[in-house]
Amino acid sequence: RMICSPAQPAGEEGGTSAPTVKLAGFCPSGRMQDKGMEAEVLDAGKKTEVRVLAYDFLEGSLVVTRRPYDMKEDTLVSVVELSAGQLISGKITRVAPFGVIVKLSEYVHGLVPLRHLTDVPLASVPKKFSVDTKVKCRVLKVNPQRRQVELTAKKTLVGSDYQLSKLEEARKDMIVTGFVSNVQAYGHIVTFFDRMYGLIPIKEFEENEAPALGMVVTVRIRH
């Protein structure tokens, strides 16, 4: 959120341009007021509160909104508002061979990869994951530059009490839950949230009991 003053009224494209200290912010006409309500006309120099939606690198300016709906604290308008391990719900808008696309808000969509739909990865998307179905997920990782969000719908990860996402939070003998992301001759790589990962040496497994790629595992941190 920020306070700014319009530099000029709406132009041919509609909307209002407003400067900040070193940046200009553009508010499209459709983001001036909620649908069905008449937008307030802002005179140059009048201060108004807005919320940043995105940064336009081509124009070197901010894209902002002042719609009452967008100004609510619980309205998700950008991927940067999400954090790894966060629990969030959405609605499936697309089902593809590689996974499902979930609408988290009007502005943000996320991908649940195929291997993250179930605790034990399947060869295809289960029928229960259909368009318009509501799903509860956790944020695996966020890429602000590409405005991408990767999610997991693995039941064990979604329901876990603790989500390891920072190295400084890891402690010896801590019990954490992750998933097998790579299998090598020397052991299994276990990935947690926000690209955190660890190694289970092959000697830790009983014969023929090593978890398969993509499976959820609960482990104890040795060091």
From TrEMBL:
GO cellular component: small-subunit processome
GO MF terms, alphabetically ordered: RNA binding
PROSITE patterns on file: S1 (PS50126)
S1 motif domain: residues covered: 85-154, 173-223
Biological processes per GO annotation: rRNA processing
Signal peptide range in chain numbering: none
Protein name: S1 motif domain-containing protein
Organism for this UniProt entry: Alexandrium andersonii
